[in-house]
Amino acid sequence: MHSTDLPEPPDGIIAQLRADHARVRAMLHEFAMLDGEEVERRERLVDDLCDELSLHATLEEELFYPALRAVVDDSLLDNAELEHDSARELILQLETLFPEDDFFNATVAVLAEEVAHHVAHEETVLFPALARAGVDQVALGQRLRARRLQLELDLASPPPAIDGTEPRGLLRGSLGQLRERRARPR
Q1: Which run of H or of E encompasses 172?
Q2: Which spans in 6-125 are helix H?
Q3: What is the pTM of this model?
């Protein structure tokens, strides 16, 4: 067995992050297979994908990346965090787009490409680095699972009231008309 082929505990942090990656890949594949006429399913799937990616990025930034800081070059993690920022920008764009909008499919495609690149980097460079470092993956996995539950509860909570001049959920379209914003039920 090579040092990069160290076994991963099934309940360890790497196994959980790999499972997240697999879920995201499956969602992106499902989106690619959907017919353009399946508007509601496409919208719901993209909302779920955005929620999953946001949750995953938060968990990595709070637990995985700090565990790696002492064992890899900071530039590797800085780049990974920049990739998360880029994905968040695309997610913000998708929150204002409808499946019928011109840039909806293109934005999902760019997000899919960025996610594929990011996942490949993590799985080929960062995961092996953590495994080689001898970090207690199970303890980190337990912390990740607890934090995930906490974040999922936060996502399930109703959003706070918002003060503003326009009713919540409405955006002005390019012609100045009000259009309802896609809202993710929590």
Answers
A1: strand 170-172
A2: 13-33, 39-59, 65-68, 74-96, 104-121
A3: 0.81
Pairwise CA distance, residues 42 & 31, whole Å:
6
Q: 111 near 168, Cβ under 8 Å? A: no
Positive or negative: CA dihedral 135, 137, 138, 142: positive
d(CA 165, CA 45): 31
Annotated domain spans of the chain: 10-158+166-180
Q: Encode pLDDT of 6-53 as tens digits.
A: 566 788 999 999 999 999 999 999 999 999 889 999 999 999 999 999
List, for residues 137-172, the tens digit of each pLDDT value. 999 999 999 999 999 998 888 767 665 555 444 454
Q: How far apart are CA 104 and CA 5, in angstroms?
A: 40
Per the document, the length of the chain is 186
Query: ∠ CA 142-56-73 to the nearest 5 degrees?
Result: 85
For 6, the token pair is 């160290």
